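Quick review question:
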């Protein structure tokens, strides 16, 4: 009887967790908070628009939908406040890591995270369109603030729109120096783990784990400072298997 009751309670918890998932889609135009008592699914490109702040509680899990290439973009003038803790990191991951998923997570299961700001970039006119979705970024505000990413894991992201036109695990375009980036791990990215397009943001305690392409890439005159970087590359056998199976 006790075993039966424990089983019923466990089943109820699992059902509760499944039913607590909330979809995120379209544009976020007002302040919004993602709470750790739910899970979330990025459907398509979700944009945090100028003037809006997306706050994410410690311990929150956000899944990226595979079929719609779920991605999160913080536009210039928008903010993300994603400050986890060592014990309760914020996790962005493949939808195939959900309980009961019938497919194994893999490189490039979803898009990734793109932070865009108004800091200087080294291109004619001072503005550019970011790889992949093509949102504009760049400007003259060196101390621009796009928010906080701290104790964040990003797993199985990275997709190619076309040749040399991809979404990385974490893409940073024209991000300013008042933005805080610390304790971020990108794992199994289908393209670069981290890529900085210009900007002045500083970052430290970054881990690139078994990414498909570059671990840390910089373009367009990135002028911030990076400290305490760790990388473990995917071995050649894994790369060849991905090519043979058409994963990348």
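Suggested answer, residue by residue:
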């Amino acid at each position: 009887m006790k075993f039966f009751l424990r089983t019923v309670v466990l089943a109820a918890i699992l059902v509760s967790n499944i039913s607590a998932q909330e979809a995120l889609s379209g544009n976020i135009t007002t302040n919004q908070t993602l709470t750790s008592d739910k899970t979330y699914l990025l459907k398509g490109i979700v944009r945090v628009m100028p003037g809006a702040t997306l706050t994410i509680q410690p311990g929150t899990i956000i899944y990226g939908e595979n079929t719609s290439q779920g991605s999160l973009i913080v536009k210039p003038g928008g903010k993300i406040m994603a400050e986890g803790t060592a014990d309760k990191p914020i996790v962005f991951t493949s939808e195939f890591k959900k309980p009961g998923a019938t497919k194994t997570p893999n490189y490039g299961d979803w898009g990734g995270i793109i932070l865009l700001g108004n800091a200087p970039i080294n291109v004619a006119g001072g503005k550019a369109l970011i790889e992949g979705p093509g949102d504009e970024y760049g400007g003259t505000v060196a101390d621009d603030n796009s928010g906080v990413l701290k104790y964040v894991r990003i797993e199985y992201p990275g997709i190619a729109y076309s040749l040399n036109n991809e979404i990385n695990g974490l893409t940073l375009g024209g991000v300013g120096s008042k933005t805080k980036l610390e304790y971020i791990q990108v794992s199994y990215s289908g393209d670069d783990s981290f890529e900085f397009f210009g900007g002045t943001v500083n970052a430290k305690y970054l881990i690139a784990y078994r990414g498909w392409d570059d671990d840390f890439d910089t373009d367009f005159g990135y002028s911030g400072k990076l400290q305490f970087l760790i990388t473990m590359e995917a071995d050649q056998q894994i790369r060849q298997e991905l090519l043979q199976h058409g994963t990348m």
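Why it works: Residues 83 and 150 are 5 Å apart (CA to CA). Confidence is low (pLDDT under 50) at residues 1-19.
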